[in-house]
């Protein structure tokens, strides 16, 4: 009986610890998309944010789709975002951008650098 109670208490402590850690970090969820008019044609970029700092970036340009998976982290103030992707050589490459969130005409958006991405889900 003591083993069962000890096991339940350890599991409860572990769950509480994980929930506390998840609540501490700033995170995003959902997909955000931007349609861009470039000199060579139209392009679109979609960021799909998943739990625990994962991000998938899908770029459609000139009929070619590119998908990259990486990590993201928001700073403490929530006004900068850092992306980490692995390049062709297997090296991690970090890029930092200004970041903002908002809502316009009932549509949520994020702004990464100078580009505004509207929530699509």
Explain how this protein is built.
The protein is α+β, with helices and mostly antiparallel strands and 121 residues long. It is built from 1 helix and 8 strands, in the order αββββββββ. It has one helix spanning 2-24, and strands at 30-38, 41-50, 54-61, 64-74, 80-86, 92-104, 107-112, 115-119. The protein has an 8-stranded antiparallel β-barrel with strand order 1-2-3-4-5-6-7-8. Strand 6 and strand 7 (107-112) form a beta hairpin. The longest helix is centred in the first third of the chain and has 23 residues, at 2-24. The chain is globular. Mean pLDDT is 85; it is low at 16-24.
Strand content: over 45%
Number of strands: 8
Distance between the termini: 48 Å
User: How many helix segments?
Assistant: 1
| Spatial sequence of strands, sheet with the most strands | 1-2-3-4-5-6-7-8
The value of Rg in angstroms is 19 Å
Identify low-pLDDT runs.
16-24
The ordered H/E elements are: HEEEEEEEE
SS-derived structural category: alpha+beta
* Helical fraction: 10-25%
Average the pLDDT over all residues and give the rounded result.
85
Largest β-sheet summary: 8 strands, antiparallel, barrel
Shape: globular
Features:
globular, 121 residues, eight-stranded antiparallel beta barrel
